[in-house]
Amino acid sequence: MDSSCKEFYDFGGRPVECQYLLLLISEMEGTYQHLKFMGFKEDMETLEEMKKRYYKLYFKTLKEEKAKA
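Above: the chain sequence. Below: its structure as tokens.
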């Protein structure tokens, strides 16, 4: 692995940018569906709260990125 890519996989090594937030949100949405189908309501509710935070962060970051462009 290229040493410039290694830090990307370290804790905190990935930048908080729209594209990465969308990847995270997508994973969370998929997990939410699995929880729903398996009947884990409490975990669904916990994940729903987490998703709200990351959607809010995504739209804030998107606005900032558009302002810089």
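Residues 40-69 form one domain.
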